[in-house]
Write a structure and sequence with these properties.
By secondary structure, the chain is α/β, with parallel strands linked by helices.
Length: 552
């Protein structure tokens, strides 16, 4: 049948199983929005800002495993997507960003709202397309979705000229191409198995790749079979529950003491779906000292890029771990018990107010709810002390570290999962994304916003305390925003928490209101500006230099 380009786009999106689009209309996408309106088969969520739409598509993708979709007009609409696209790229999140552009006759003439969005996004997409021929549109859309969710996942951009949206072409529905990872491992799986079987103190490091390929159950079986302690990167949170007997918590710059000690003592590291970033490897030269390393990774570019492994298996983590576990011999739990003792010691210590808030919130939050964070100290506290029920229940901007990510991602996470959401944010971050609070109100999102309110840019201030001798340059927010009043004025609810002893009662009330009224509830938690995220390893330093105290 013959359809316009705009209609072909909508049909192809439905073909790919898309049920939700996050976007903001404008002149060069009028025909797409008209086709959306006439079709009525896809839910469109109007955000307050295009960046919020990109982050919402990202959050949707993280909790569902499906491709998230966002839509924007040309010029500023397209450029406003860039931070969200970059965040998805850094964290390997499948996303398709669709933009409109001026008609072909106006290209290259500095026309109104003309921008080369394809050129701008080359470094932060797996691929991108400028569609100038309506007869190629359907195939490009299909290819974009396949690329976004195959191999190492990531964002793809499709820029559709305005004239292509109104021109017509023949369209025939086809079944989406299914991505099936190769299962060819060769002898390297046996080499890895031999190394692990010979180890006395194996340690697993689980990264975002484990979540991305839904390998959580397989990794848990691996850890339990050989009684190996497991540390997760920021992106690997949820691989094991916080309470699991093998889980030592987060590893890296602000990771747990237990994970740092285990790394220093381990004789074999089993790295799964992690790229050994600077926040995990720290001092790359000393990372593998006195130990051997097995790396299982789907992206060849990440093999030996930061840390040189003794055995490198280029494969989908799910398939490789499933095969590897078959060839491993069970081990006793003596090493695991020793490694876990440091975690038990940390659990028993007196908690800072922000840490107490995280523990309490994870206890009273609805079962199987989703945790979202913005970026900063609160992000680290949440990653370490807020328990989630499993994979795909945690959303954060890890690689890019985009402040302002949280509110949009919370919107997408709820609409993707249908589960209540907790957003942990800071006063600096909230000022960047509070425009999406009314969007959450409009969409009936049962969201609890835990605002760690210390009046400063906490993480930067902490770094200034360590590296610039306490010269606090431009980290005092110097504002007197009444966040509780703001939340109420936007149609939500606001509460204030100032004492440790009130944490459970106030947070329980927040979750009850969010659930019963289906509205976002903001809890303004007033904390000390000198509460620091500890332990901490200075960038580029070895794990042996982990510090647990900072001089005031």
């Amino acid at each position: 049948m013959k359809l316009t380009g705009a209609e072909i786009l909508i049909e192809c999106l439905k073909e790919q199983g898309v049920d939700t689009i996050f976007g903001y209309p404008g002149g060069t996408v009028l025909d797409i929005y008209d086709a959306l309106y006439k079709d009525g088969g896809i839910r469109h969520v109007l955000t307050s800002h295009e960046q919020g739409a990109a982050h919402a598509a990202d959050g949707y993708a993280r909790v569902t495993g499906k491709v998230g979709v966002c839509l924007a007009t040309s010029g500023p609409g397209a450029t406003n997507l860039v931070t969200g696209i970059a965040a998805a790229y850094m964290d390997s999140i499948p996303l398709v960003a669709i933009t409109g552009n001026v008609t072909e006759s106006l290209l290259g003439r500095d026309s109104f709202q003309e921008i080369d969005i394809a050129g701008i996004t080359i470094p932060i997409t797996k691929n991108n397309y400028i569609v100038k021929d309506v007869t190629k549109l359907a195939d490009i859309i299909r290819r974009a979705f396949y690329i976004a969710q195959s191999g190492r996942k990531g964002p793809v951009l499709i820029d559709i000229l305005k004239n292509v949206q109104t021109e017509t072409a023949e369209y025939e529905r086809v079944k989406p191409a299914a991505y099936r990872p190769a299962k060819v491992f060769g002898s390297l799986i046996y080499d890895a198995a031999d190394m692990i079987n010979a180890a006395k103190k194996p340690l697993i490091i689980a990264g975002g790749g484990v979540i991305s390929c839904d390998a959580g159950k397989e990794v848990r079986k691996l850890a339990e079979k050989i009684n190996a302690p497991l540390c997760h990167t920021l992106m690997g949170k949820g691989v094991l529950t916080h309470e699991h007997r093998c889980n030592l918590g987060m590893i890296g710059m602000h990771g747990t003491v237990a994970s740092a000690k285990a790394l220093l003592e381990a004789d074999v590291v089993i790295a799964l779906g992690t790229r050994f970033s600077d926040r995990v490897a720290m001092d790359r030269a000393s990372f593998s000292k006195n130990k051997r390393t097995v790396q299982i990774e789907i992206d060849n570019a990440e093999i030996d890029k930061n840390v040189t492994a003794d055995v490198s298996v280029l494969a989908d983590v799910y398939e490789a771990v499933k095969e590897l576990t078959l060839h491993l011999n069970p081990k006793d739990d003596e090493w695991l018990k020793k490694a876990y003792a440091a975690k038990e010691k940390d659990e028993a210590r007196k908690k800072l107010f922000p840490e107490k808030i995280m523990y309490t919130a994870s206890k009273v939050a609805p079962p199987d709810s989703v945790l979202v964070t913005d970026v900063g100290q609160h992000q680290m506290w949440a990653a370490k002390y807020f328990s989630v029920s499993g994979p795909r229940r945690f959303c954060t901007s890890g690689g890019l570290g985009a402040m302002g990510y949280g509110m949009g991602a919370s919107l997408g996470a709820f609409l993707g999962s249908g589960k209540p959401v907790t957003l942990v944010t800071g006063d600096g971050c909230l000022r960047m994304n509070m425009n999406e609070f009314p969007t959450c109100v409009a969409c009936g999102v049962p969201l609890v916003v835990i605002l760690i309110d210390n009046g400063v840019l906490g993480m930067v201030r902490q770094l200034q305390k360590v590296f610039t001798e306490g010269r606090f340059s431009q980290t005092d927010l110097s504002t007197n925003i009444d966040f509780v009043a703001f939340a109420k004025s936007m149609g939500g609810e606001g509460l204030r928490l100032t004492k440790k002893g009130d944490a459970e009662a106030v947070l329980k009330k927040a979750y009850d209101i969010a659930e019963t009224k289906r509205i976002p509830v903001l809890v303004d938690c007033i904390v000390d500006k000198d509460d620091n995220v500890l332990p901490m390893i200075k960038p580029g330093s070895p794990y042996s230099s982990q510090i647990t105290k900072i001089k005031d």
